[in-house]
Specification:
Number of strands: 7
Radius of gyration: 14 Å
CATH architecture: 3-Layer(aba) Sandwich
Strand content: 25-35%
Strand order of the largest sheet: 1-7-6-2-5-4-3
Number of domains: 1
Order of helices and strands: EHEHEEHEEE
Amino acid sequence: MTTGTMRLGDLAATEAVGAKLASGLRAGDVITLKGPLGAGKTSIARGLLAALGLAGEAPSPSFAIVQPYDLPEVRLPVMHVDLYRLDEAAELAELGLDDALYDSALVVEWPDRAGTGAWPDALRLTLAIEPDGARRLTWEAPAAWERRWP
């Protein structure tokens, strides 16, 4: 497991992180995004989806919980997931995310709602808002991500 941090000065830098993630993303990958409301979780996901070819801006999946993106709108199928509205981790099974990993990648906001131990091989990204408004990105990259991130 490798760890690190970087400073993201603005929205463009935050979306650029998503674009970098897209370059090494594979089916079966999980990226988790933690941080307070407004920290930039959805901005990273939007940058990733744009780099995969999505035309237009991706909506936040807050109300849908799972927003799928499939071929041909993106080069690799992605499930953008927002678990904020989950009441308990047991509800996760109803979303069918494990089956999606056969041919898709998952980008999961609010992963702590899935309970401890969910997606042990995920690339874990945490965003914090700095006093000057910039973002601090901290990551934990498992062995599967070592040559792909950062």
